[in-house]
Amino acid sequence: MPIKDMFCEDVCDVFLNLDEFAEWHDIGPRAGMARRVRCVIDKNETSDIASVVVARFSEGVAEGSIRVYLRQGDIPRPAIGEILRIDGSLHIVQRTSLEMGMLVIELSENEHGS
Q: What angle do CA 100, 105, 110 make, to 5 degrees?
């Protein structure tokens, strides 16, 4: 079996395995349109997008970034600038890419200060 096919198989069998890395999350453009999908959410503050966004603060709102990894085809690929709801929380799509059978979505998020 070619390595590319093996990697695509590993997307579900390993990386998106609920017993290993993945968890169920509701993702979609609006409430009522979200799909429950297996995905991995990475809140790695050292990502290149985070270095730009995390430093911005305004009136008690800090912005951060997250990366969502899910199987290509589980949801439609969102457009840059689109609002995406993850488990009820709103995020703005900054970047998307297709990587060996996976859809990777980079989003900015707002965290309201107290």
A: 160
The reply to whether CATH 2.40.10 applies to domain 3-112 is: yes
pLDDT tens digits, 2-26: 777 777 777 777 888 899 889 999 9
| SS3 label, residue 9 | helix
- Judge contact between 34 and 85, C-beta under 8 A: yes
Q: Who contacts 28 (Cβ-Cβ below 8 Å, separation ≥6)? A: 34, 35, 75, 84, 85
User: pTM higher than 0.90 for the full model?
Assistant: no
Q: What are phi and psi of 5, to 5 degrees?
A: -65, -40
The answer to whether 106 and 67 are in contact (CB under 8 A) is: yes
The domains of the chain are located at: 3-112
Instruction: Please compute, for residue 66, the number of CA atoms within 13 A of its CA located in the half-sphere on the CB side.
Output: 17
